[in-house]
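Bit of a strange request maybe. I'm writing a small parser for structure token strings and I need a real example to test against, not something I typed by hand. Could someone generate the tokens for this chain?
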Amino acid sequence: MNNKTFKLVISALLMAIGILIPMVSPIKLQFGPMSFTLGSHVAIIIAMFISPKVAIAVALGTTLGFFMAGFPLVVVLRAFSHVLFASIGAFYLVKKPNVFNKVSSTVLFSVALALIHALGEVIVVIPFYINTMSIADLFYMLFVLVGIGTILHALFDTVVSLLVWKVVIQNKKVQNLVMVKSITLRTVAE
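Reply from user aminoacidic:
Good idea to test on real output. This should exercise your parser:
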């Protein structure tokens, strides 16, 4: 199998995982626009390690998964906002593919990406609730439930993604077609 075909297969598998997770995950919590679906960002984050095109395609695929799983429109649109963090993260990794080789750069990248991720989701939620609640309730929903909730969820899924990627990247064929070729054991363990 040539590299182009192999990359297409890996991309398709990540999209399938991204579509299936919201449909079959045993852990799905939802409070209004805030939802937590265990592992829902893992396929997207791993796709960022491959290329920007793959990251965007997988983010769109996970949006389809949330739609097919019957989540409310606000949650589906929050999933669609993942295209923002996925593309920014993947384009950054094109320039800095060794970001995960030091603890400090790993943490900085992960936190920055989680903040971008949360900002995208907060912006999506605002039109749905701006005229329906008090300022205090709106602030709580946007910045605590959606904002901080998304940051924590994104950081958790980033750690899971790095652990999975550490195993996947051992395959020589995978190493030939990805941007992020190594993650130090120390980085993931700390």
